[in-house]
Amino acid sequence: MITFIIGLVILFVGAALYGRFCEKVFGPDDRKTPAYTKQDGIDYVPMKKWKNSLINLLNIAGTGPILGPIQGILFGPIAFITIPIGNIIGGAMHDYFSGMICLRDGGTQMPDMIRKYSNKGVYGVYQVFCSLLLLLVGAVFVYTPGDIAATQVFGFDGAATSVSTWVIYGVIFAYYLIATVFPIDAIIGRIYPVFGAVLLFSAIGVFIGLFVQGYPLVELWDNWNGPLVAYGDYFGENHFIPVFFITVACGILSGFHSTQTAIISRTVKSEKEGRMTFYNMMIVEGFIAMVWAAGAMGVYNLGLQSADPALATATIGVVCKNLLGSVGGIIALVGVIVLPITSGDTALRSLRLAIADTFRIDQTSTKKRLALSAVIFSLVAAILVFAKMNANGFNVLWRYFAWSNQALSLFAFLAISIWMFEHKKEKFVWMPLIPGAWYAFVTITYIANAKIGFNIPWTGAYIVGVCAAVAYVGVILWYGKNRAAAVK
After folding, report:
1. Which CATH number is 2-392's, of 2.30.30.140, 3.40.50.20, 1.20.1070.10, 1.20.1740.10?
2. pLDDT per residue over 419-438, tens digit each?
3. Which residues cross the membrane (predicted)?
């Protein structure tokens, strides 16, 4: 377990250092936050730091930091190092600056942030892209918790033809509607502490169980090809870059997170709470990803579960029940179910807010919020039915979700870079540009090669990816310098 422990040290020590550095660069002060200046009792509501932090964690941590690492650990123990490094300099930095800029700018949503720090063309592309992603998130985060609950908690078959499957989906949908429409402190602010307790039991319980049970983990310096799992062969044959960084997704970086941190920017009491609320909660998600990567590797090495990416959902149940027993395992499974549900509800809430802000649709009355939500939920339901009724429907849905999730972060990194130029912090622009350039390469290379994309051979896809990354950095530097000169 030495590599795993080294990874955890990198994660927590690196977070303490780089998180403080991010805070210093941004410069939080004592100005009144939008929670007070725009207080409306619905979306702009002052809430305590611990509650904001917990809500933000539950908002951002869906099934990505569990299913992603379970599949990504097949690339071997290198995952225990790349997850924390990427999380610290990429994901957590992305979440912190996205949340803080939206907070400083009056509790704006991400579309407004993109509009302010780019141009109409980029903003238009982002609006379409973001709306589609949030619809996909809504559908995925009904599908995955619904199926886990049906098959591993209640013992149903989870089939598309079973009434029980659609009843469970319907219950989740009903909760999403309530959480989307009613004031944030009336539903989310009250129920999330309970969800948070179950989540923490799940993550910490699995973490402790790894050591108590003595799960066998492969070290970086070991032979990666064991008797049951050939991690080395998988690493060599499946293009670690870019496939690993698309697969693991949320444990390292998620563009979806910026849409969620913007929601919390409307309930934060002080800018100085931002590092805990935004940066550190992404670090906690990285910890969750590390724990589940280790748990999956352990059950694969013990032969308790086949190392098949298609069986990632089943692996969750095996890890929970083997480490925590029947009762503890069920509680841990409930914690896993909580993650996507508490991301799906706020994904649809943020989509409602973004559409309302864009088209200036008044949301002060319940009737108007219900009317807009009805349109959104109808679209999500249609996507869900397609995914469930088609044999390969969910695989297609998940692949588009994973890729678009990472690609969305490029817009946030762009906006953060331009914000730095406009606020005389251009010497720090390398902070968003490094992960931005990396993920421009990763996402473009992946979609260029993928069958759901352009199906270009790998050599050509890599060339396209490199060109895209260079162009991404070049355009941002050019545009940023022009914007900086214009505000002087």
Report:
1. 1.20.1740.10
2. 999 999 999 999 999 999 99
3. 66-90, 123-143, 163-182, 194-218, 238-257, 278-303, 323-342, 370-389, 401-421, 428-448, 460-480
